[in-house]
Amino acid sequence: MARKSGKSANIPWTDDELRRSVEVYVLLLRLQLHGGDDRAEPVAQALLGGALALRNDAAVRYRMRNISAVARELGAPVLRDFSPAESVGALVRPRIRAMLMDNPDFVRILAPAIEHSENDRVRALSVLRTLRQYLKDLEHELSWRGHNKPPDQEEIGLDLAELRSALADIGVIETQLESAAPDPQVVAARTSNLLGLANRLAKWLGERTTKFVDAALVAAGPVVVAKVTGLLPLIVDSLEAVGRTLAH
Question: Are residues 16 and 126 in the same domain?
Answer without folding.
Answer: no
